[in-house]
Amino acid sequence: MKRAWELAGDLYWNAKPVIRSEEEQTWTANLETQRFYDQILSLDWGSNVPGSGAPECIMTAAIQALENRGYRASERAYELLEEGLAARKAEDFIRLQQVSAELRYELARAEKDESSTYWSYGQYDSFAAYEKAVSFPEARPVDLEAPRFREQLKGAWLSQLIGAAMGTMVEGYTSQNLYEAFGEVYEYLREPNTYNDDITYELAFLDAFSKYGYNLTSREIALAWAGLIPCGWSAEEIALRNIKNGILPPESGTYRNPFNEWIGAQMKGGICGLAAPGDAKLAARLAWADGEVAHANNGILGEVFNAVLTSLAFTEQDVRHLVRRAIDLIPADSEYYAVVSFAWDCCEKYEDWHLALADCQEQYKTYNWIHAYPNACCEVIALYYGNGDYTKTLHIVTMCGVDVDCNAGMIMPILAIQQGMGIIPKKLIHPAFSQLITYMRGMRRIGLEELVDDTLNSILHAKKQGGD
C-alpha cells in the first residue's frame, strides 16, 4: 500500500501544465456555493415545515433546548439572537454568517445552571447504566416463519405511512389551532403521499441491521447515515456533520448538539421493536445503539420507549397494559419517566382526553414542539384513550398537535401489530402507500412489499446469525 507522500507525489510529479481559457477561470462555482450556504443558514433562522407550513426557527430553539437541558445561555447569546433575526429579515448574509458563528460559540460555552430541576434526575449515558436501572421481562417467542408475522410487519409499515401522511399535513400546530382551522379531523385533509424525512433513519437502521444483525453497533448505524442520508434537521443534521468530520457515536450525538433530547430518536424507535419482536431488552439495546448516533440521555430513552412499545405489542394485546409496561421499563429516577408518568396520571384522572392534554401542555410549555417530552405525552394520551380503536387513536393523536407525523407514525403500527391488517380502515389505505419515495442515496423509491420482505429477511437472517 502506498504511503500518503507517495500518492501526493504521484499527483504532483505527473501533473502536466495546461493553459485554461478565460471561461474556465470564472467564479461561477464559488458563487453557487455561496448562495447554497447562505440559503442553508437562512433556514436556521426561519423556515416552514415542508408538509404543513408550520413556522420554526432553529437558532431560537437551540437556546431553548439548552435551557431545557439545564444550561444557562449568556446574555450575549440573546443579543446575538436578536441581531441574527434582524440580519435575516434584512437579507444581510455577511452579518448573518458572522452572528451565527458567534452564537454557536456562545452556545458551546453555556454554563451549567445548578438551579435547574434537570440535574435532580438520573442521567443515563450508556446502555449498561440504563440496563441496571430496570427489570426486563423474559422474552416471549414469536413465530417468525408464520404468515401472521409478515402480516404484522406489513401492517406496521403501512400504519406508519398512514400516520406519517396524516401527521405531515398538520404538524407544528397546537391542538387548539387545529380545531379552529379544521374542526375534528378523521381523514386526510389532502391527497396523502409518502414524503417524510423521519422514515429515512429507520431505513438506514434497517440497511445496517441487514448486514450486522444483532451485533449491530452505533458506529455501523452512523456510517449508514453518512452513506445514505444527504442531510437532516436539528439533532440529526448536527450529528451528520459530526460523523462526516470523524466524530463517531456517542460523541456524534453530544458534541455541540443542543437538540439531542428532541424527538429525533423517539420518532424512529419502531424499527428496533420490529427487529426484536417480543423481546423488550433486545429492542431497548438496539434502540440505544441507534439513539446515541444523534441523541443522549432522555433523548435516547424516548427511542427506547417506542422500541419497547413496538416489541411488546407482538405479545401483549391490552393497549393500556402495554403502555404501562413500557413506562415501567424507563428508569424511575429519569426525567423521561417523570414525563410519561405525568401523562399517564393525567389519563387516569380525566375521562376527557382534552383535559389530560391541557395539563400536559401547561406542564411542558417551556419545551419546543419538536422536543421529545410534549410528544411523548401525546403518544400516551392517544394510546390510552384510543384503547385499541384504530380510527379513534389516529384522530386523538392528530388533534393533539405538536409533531404529529412522528407520534402517529410510531403508535399506529402498534395497533396493527396487535390486531392485524384488518384493523386498518380501508378508506385510509391510499394507492400512494404502495411505494415510498425518499431523498436517500440508492433508495429513491421502495415498494411497500419490498420493504416488508427486506424487514422480514433481515430479522430471519439476524436470528440465524445469533448474537442477541
Low-confidence stretches: none
Task: Please provide the ordered H/E string of secondary-structure elements.
Answer: HHEEHEHHEHHEHHHHHHHHHHHHHEHEEH
Number of strands: 8
Helix proportion of residues, in percent?
55-70%
Task: Report what the structure shows.
The protein is built from 22 helices and 8 strands. The strands form 4 sheets. The chain has a two-stranded antiparallel ribbon with strand order 1-2. Strands 3-4 form a two-stranded antiparallel sheet. It has a two-stranded antiparallel ribbon with strand order 5-6. The mean pLDDT is 96. A hairpin with a 7-residue loop joins strand 7 and strand 8 (445-447). The radius of gyration is 23 Å and the shape is globular. Helix 4 packs antiparallel against helix 5. It is mainly alpha-helical and 468 residues long.
